[in-house]
Amino acid sequence: MPTTQDAQTNADRVYIFDTTLRDGEQSPGATMTLSEKLQIAELLDDMGVDIIEAGFPIASNGDFEAVAEIARRSKNSVIAGLARAIPADIDRAGEAVRHARRGRIHTFVSTSPIHLAHQMNKTQDEVLEIVTRTVTQARNLIDNVEWSAMDATRTPIDFLARCTDAAIRAGATTINLPDTVGYSTPEDYAAMFIAVMTKVPGSDKAIFSTHCHNDLGMAVANSLAGVRAGARQVECTINGLGERAGNAALEEVVMAIRTRGDSLPYMTGIETTHLSRVSKAVSAASNFPVQFNKAVVGKNAFAHESGIHQDGMLKNAQTYEIMTPESVGIKSTSLVMGKHSGRHAFKEKLRDLGYDLADNQFQEAFQRFKDLADKKKNVYDEDIMALVDDELGSAADRIKLVEMEVVSKTGGTHRCNLTLSIDGAVSAVSYEGTGSVDAIFQAIKKAVDADPHLVLFAIDAVTGGTDAQANAHVRLEMNNRIVSGNAAEPDTLMACARAYLNAYNRLMMERGAPAQGAMESAAG
Q1: The dihedral sign for the CA sequence 234, 239, 241, 244
Q2: What is the Cα–Cα distance from 255 to 259, expressed in whole angstroms?
Q3: CB 435 within 8 A of CB 415
Q4: Where are the alpha helices (DSSP H) in 380-435?
Q5: pLDDT tens-digit map of 17-32
Q6: Architecture of domain 14-295
Q7: Which of 152-161, 353-362, 426-435 has the lowest mean pLDDT?
Q8: Using an 8 Å Cβ cutoff, are 248 and 217 in contact?
Q9: Non-local CB neighbours of 429 within 8 Å, separated by 6+ positions
Q10: Which of 447, 446, 440 is nearest to 426 (CA)?
Q11: pLDDT at 1 over 50
């Protein structure tokens, strides 16, 4: 018999639904490989994420295989597969999650007038019939069904309540009311939940969920407002990854609840000391760098440069830190590594940073570390993380850089002499460009005999100082696919070349073709 305290504890429990592998991967250029998805899913499971939305099974054979394999490997998390309100989608999702210890089908349909008129061409009565029919189908396959009203925040409350009532009657156990286009404010979002829960007689039979996009920068605030209004599931992503401006950031939601218990008297099951490691893994897999001033997991989140701040920190850390770096898995101090450091020290450093490498990976990483230490006076944690992430990301590349020479002359020639290994075959080319980077990129294009469009090119320093590693970011588009690549090197031009090759290698990856219109109409 549960006690009053148990009931209160359950009422205050907020379930974390991570959609990094589904909504996050829909960010242009963020496509992940199967091995990357499996690694991230394992990290999320270990961290205590309640529900992992592993993908959109109908989208492609690759997505189906990823969801199915994550379902087989899951230890604790519920594994969800997304499905449109289409019978084939629901069957495919059910098949993908059937091996999970606990599986879920997450099905959705548009409800707002603008979506019904311009996307679905359906009446409200037709949508209500679709909700009942498809939720019933999903419930016949599995007892854990989530239903989402796409574009809920622009849907009239009375119709939203009718749809919610139909979904619960058909067997939905979770009701998601998303701010699909990032339009809402915290006050409006909370009012929507209160109104729907009040109007629907059986609302107590389901858990209500938030799913907020960040188009106006209010995704986390809206999510927490939804929790205050009675929602007990928050859908979010690591680093706020997601379509357009992204989703509510998991790490921000979780740490806000943990840090502000006075204002947010709730709890989650997340082991927060894992947050930094998971953030880095997602950033590396998606090739989306975390901005330096990103809340909770950004490079500068626990950095203090101002003299006044430093003085306060030395006297009492709480003067300028509302949470400890250790609470999110960040070391408070940085052990400087150098050329005299040995394998044991390097292995301990990797463990401290959250890396567990196989022997061959460790040997390769250690050799690159020693090469870097010969060029840099000090090697910082950020250098090592960039080096290891870069090493792991390039291990399976089909195109590898063998040798490169760049000749630049003021007012004259900018030539790149390049040798690549393409599927084991060596190709040597030379190209003159308008600048050094142009010569490098054009030489690579010539060697691989392809002409992808350069969407983005950026460089930043991993650490400070003139000997800092350059972190190059490249985004390419070809055949309606957008991919990202990055690389860190002490030599800026070498970093540029390897980042371009990293992106092009991703273009060469064999992936299943998405079902017609599937990815474009994904929920949330």
Answers
A1: positive
A2: 6
A3: no
A4: 381-393
A5: 999 999 998 888 888 8
A6: Alpha-Beta Barrel (3.20)
A7: 353-362
A8: no
A9: 417, 418, 420, 443, 446, 447
A10: 447
A11: no
Report which of 252, 184, 175 is spatially closest to residue 214, judged by C-alpha positions.
184
Residue 469 near residue 460 (C-beta atoms within 8 A): no
pLDDT of 512 reads 36
Q: Which helix (DSSP H) or strand (DSSP E) does residue 475 occupy?
A: strand 470-478
CATH class of 399-508: alpha beta
User: Does this chain's domain 14-295 share its CATH topology with 399-508?
Assistant: no
Task: Show the 3-state SS of 149-218.
Answer: EECHHHCCHHHHHHHHHHHHHHCCCEEECCECCCCCCHHHHHHHHHHHHHHCCCHHHCEEEEEEECCCCC
Contacts of 391 (CB under 8 A, 6+ apart): 361, 364, 365, 368
CB atoms within 10 A of CB 132: 16
Rounded Cα gap, residues 444 and 21, in angstroms: 31
Tens of pLDDT, residue by residue over 150-202, are 999 999 999 999 999 999 999 999 999 999 999 999 999 999 999 999 999 99
- Between 276 and 324, residue with greater pLDDT: 276
Beta strands at 51-55 and 399-408: parallel, antiparallel or unpaired? unpaired
Q: Output the pTM of the full model.
A: 0.74
CA-CA distance, 176 to 197, in Å (whole number)?
12
In this predicted model, which residue has the larger pLDDT, 33 or 67?
Answer: 67
Hey, what are 179's tokens? 């701010």
Any idea where the domains of the chain sit in the sequence? 14-295, 302-331, 334-393, 399-508
Lowest mean pLDDT among 95-109, 152-166, 382-396: 382-396
Burial of residue 307 (number of CB atoms within 10 Å: 0-12, 13-18, 19+): exposed
| Closest C-alpha among 85, 60, 50 to residue 163 | 85
The vertex-480 CA angle with 474 and 483, nearest 5°, equals 25
3-state secondary structure 224-289: HHHHHCCCCEEEEEHHHCCCCCCECEHHHHHHHHHHCCCCCCCECCCCHHHHHHHHHHHHHHHCCC
